[in-house]
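re: ur question from yesterday

yeah so i grabbed the chain u mentioned. its 1304 aa long if i counted rite. heres the sequnce exactly as i have it in my notes:
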Amino acid sequence: MHTLPIATTSQEIPLRIKSQRKQTVGSYSSRGRSGLYRRRYNIQDQVTESESGRSDVELNTSDEHVGESDSSDSNSSSSEDEDDDNDDDTKTKSFFSPVRESNRIERTFTNETRHQKLLLTEEDVEVDIEGYRYNTLRLIIYRVACVLTLGLVWIICRWVPKWKVAWVGYSVNLEDAEWLVFTNQYGDQQVISPVHKRLQCTIGSVFSLEQIKRELADTSLDQSKHASLLAMNKTLEWVTLVEYRYVRLAFHPILHKFLIVGFWKDHSWTVVKGLKSGLTSKKWEERLSVFGTNLIDIHEKSTLKLLTDEVLDPFYVFQIASIILWCMDDYYYYAFCIFIISAVSVITTLIETIHTTKKMREMSRFKCDVRVFRSGGWRTVNSIELVPGDLININDLHTVPCDAMLISGDCMVNESMLTGESVPVSKAPITDITLRKVNLSNDSIPAEVSKHFLFMGTKIIRVREDENCTTASAIVVRTGFNTAKGALIRSMLFPKPTSFTFYRDSYLFIGVLAIIAVFGFLLSSVNFIRLGIDYGTMMLRALDLITIVVPPALPATMSIGTNFAIQRLKKKGIFCISPPKVNIGGKIDCMCFDKTGTLTEDGLDIHGIRAVKTQDNGIKKFDEESTSVTDIEANEECNNSTASRIFRTMTTCHSLKIVEGELLGDPLDLKMFEFTQWELEESEGVSSLGLKPRNEFSTSQAKKIAKIGIMPTVVRPPGGRHDLHLSPDSLNKPPIEFGIIHSFEFVSALRRMSVIVRQLAGPSMEVFVKGAPEVMVDICRPETMPADFQERLYWYTHRGYRVIACASRELKDIKWHKLHKLKRQDVECNLTFLGFIIFENKLKLHTKDAITTLRDAKIRQIMCTGDNVLTAVSVSRECGLVDQGSEIYIPKFLKGSSTEADSELVWESVLHEGNRLSGDTLQPRTQTSSYYHHPYGRAQGYYVAVTGEAFRWMVDYAPTELLYRMLVKGAIYARMSPDEKAELVTMLQNIGYCVGFCGDGANDCGALKAGDIGISLSEAEASVAAPFTSNTMDINCVIDVIKEGRAALVTSFSCFKYMALYSIIQFTSVTLLYAFGSNLGDFQFLYIDLFLILPIAVFMGYTAVWPHLYYKRPTASLVSKKVLTSLIGHIIINSGFQFLIYWTVHQQDWYEAPVFDPDGENIMCYENTALFSLSSFQYILVAIVFSVGPPYRKPLWTNGRFILTLTALGALTTWTLIYPHPFLKDLLELETLPLSFRAYILFIAALNFATSYTCERYLFPNLAGWISQSILWTRLKLLRQTEYMPVGKVHRKIYKRVNQEMES
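ran it thru and got these structure tokens back, copy pasting raw so excuse formatting
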């Protein structure tokens, strides 16, 4: 693992060995653990934390690995250290052990630990950390063994790294460790060497006060002793640093454990004024040593390192050994072909890996010049030099280079990289009270803090300085991989590993074949000894038998179907960077979709406006919906309609700004203003239509007006420009121009904004307010409210429309110079209600058809969005994600919040007021509706729509069974953060679903990586995180990926079964010939392997995908009853026919027993010719039998290349059997058989084909079903004997069991 560059003033020092042997287990970090882990550990709390038995794992030799374990290896591993050369000055050398200076801090804890558990909450990864030192004698023995075995020991220890750890190291306390072993819950293991730096700093400069408090809460230490441990000013001379997956850890000398330094907050940050002094140069050097540089730098492996990692995979090592064996046996042609195929596969993978890494590195790496206040003055530095505590000037920044808190001025930023919504967010300076509440060790930044927080990578749209300040400034709080962007990049680099049944079973099946090979090896060896064959030839023949049973070409042939699928997807505009994910796509049974930009178009569009009309009887009601404003005059009042004032609200009540010639602001405000087709002009004369003031006078007049705070912004109809004059008498006709004199910004707590407007040359000013309809009821005069207010509001909101209410009133006798003294509550009161502005989120063109296709295929669909829950419900109904007639329940907290365990959550119907779900079972309580009629007819079934807060509470505090029920019934998840999206995907996987995720934004990266497959509709950050990227921006690509995945999975099964049966057929032939010392000839092997197997295996996977998505998924288990029944059946059939032809040859009158020559090849004999001829037909007929067609692939006859190949090979084999050319006969070393017997072989081959085809289509499926029924009947019989009977079928997958329980 690479460590970030450390300040050059620091010094390294090795560790001393202590003789202490007592082992203690580090406690779990008490930092906000996700509910997923809380639940997992509750289940596994009976397993001892010190359990030593771990599954075999492969040592991660990626760029995150540095450590002397590599340097201790044989010379063959020297190339692996190339990436680490630049970091030598920061490493601890393994072979030195001078005594380290004693720490000045008095050790309060006497128990030192050799083992620690650390939870990385952002990645949902728990890591075991163990300390080791080298045993010199065992290390020398290991190196000698590596050399003597020509690297074999090194390769084996690379595959099973825990063997190497146990061999060369011994356990020590963490602080004395020469190297550390990090093992996560997935079995990934890394060996990393710690770095020791001499700093002469305080504990508070490295560790956060809140972090230590949390750690102390986990100990049994007396509370009275906490005060001395929380003293942040104690001196710390040395600090031990280590990085795991780009997370920097520091060793706490009192707690004796590693803590994450990224959670650090200076305990002196209590007053904003104190932050404005910046850092001294000494403090900067100290913090640079601890926190590293401010750079998200993904370390690229060298091409040689990547090549070594790929080639040393067990499959390729076996291929290399096989190629060497074949060359020793003079079998050069096939060896060359396999070498070429393997080389192409390795090079292709290498190129893809390099391209993906480079693309991700370019995306994540960012640096720029920034002004920083350091040592009492402003200076320009590179952003990579920033450290926590630096004061930076943000006036000239376009992209935020770190996580920072705004302390002066204000700004507007675009956080779409984190949220997915391109909504400009206003940031205000932090206050002293909020500053003291900041806790960087929490899982997320709370809303009250985030409004002062600038996140790395977000775009700065606008910056404004304070009235009393010349610069807008911010204080750096997190840098590099510790930032929010860094956490996002880490989640992309280290996704949760997927466990696919097909790949797991393939290794198991190969293991079974290997056992058969070993058995054949032993049997053949005994037979060769009996025949007197020399040991060299015997070993070659016996080892050759292993390469026959476990074909080295198996990985290449299994990937052929996948490669064809990738090519077909590419033609459809879908690109894949992870080939193994193609097969996994064939097993998807749950698909999650983001909403905005994925199911719907980006942003909202105006659906229409609804003004209030006074009827003849004086009752106010809503007028008819209007979808256009072209016929509305803004300055003409109508006594019985509010349409003109709604129009004026739309043109003036917003916070739009012109930045670099572009109109920017809240997308809702932008859509609203564009709907009016009016023009906006700011005080400097810049217009939204690109116009300039007519003359210098109007320019200077505008600037003067802006300077005194009057009319900074003007709106007018297009082409309606008039020069700005303050006197109303200067014009004969008042212009249609409205000046926005003063505005009260939108406040989340109030849920509204307002502006004070004056029509130029108008007699008075007006107040226009827009906001949530619910809050308007409180600030509008009751007599102005329409009688059908609640009914219309309910109608729109429950169909997913976004409703904004408008109100206004006239301001009289208010002087301009008194405007800034007006209080908001005095302005926003006694208003006249004007009506509604209705927004809608339009579906993309192909969304509905794609969702219908998935529903018909019985693939569950889930919407996972950051948008409002009612909008999400409406879009779900509109696109068919939920049934139109189904009831939907949404959660509401009756008591407490998502962070309180004793909160009370209820699930209420969206459409039937008063209907609720049972809080214990999430099943409906029968209750009649007390309010509105069901707009979609009678309810059929039900779903739950889960909000982010409810999801958080259910995950953290709800009973496990209730959580499972929510996951099973939840169709809509709204107001979900990026982390919660990824967590939802993981939890769905945990209950048995194979989950796909489709999204379009960087905020979906975590979920795209967490899913079994991820499909990005973006070419930005999300495309790097997702295995699939589509340049057609609709979800039809999901259908294509699943169909191609199913076809590829079926093809992989067919190829695997074909290659396995090919091996057994050839194994049977060779074993029969070995019985009397014969064998297949070199050119016979070449004919079978190169001319028969290779083209058949290649073109077998070329069959195109079936155009319709079938409602059943193909099996993914190679050890399923259906697959095993077929495979074992065909082994029996084909081996039986070979035994038959072998026996038949011996019964013929013309048969002569071969004369055995111990020193010869013994190829030409009747048995050889008969077995070779029949087996050649078997390889062809098995390919036909195993070629699966509908409902996953097109019929066999549509694959023209495959049909042509089979025809040509069938004709060639028949010609070789019936009328062989003398040259071909000599080349293949064939005996001359009577014509009648050749015809008999042809008849046996035809009978073999008919038997195999009939059994594959009819007998084996029924036999597999009968076996399943027999096993089920036996189980039920045993259960009856134990007096326990399950209700219905017992399901392995949790979601199926929960579904069954909820439906019963």
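noticed a couple things. Residues 1235-1281 form the longest helix (47 residues). also Residues 261 and 509 are 46 Å apart (CA to CA).
anyway ttyl
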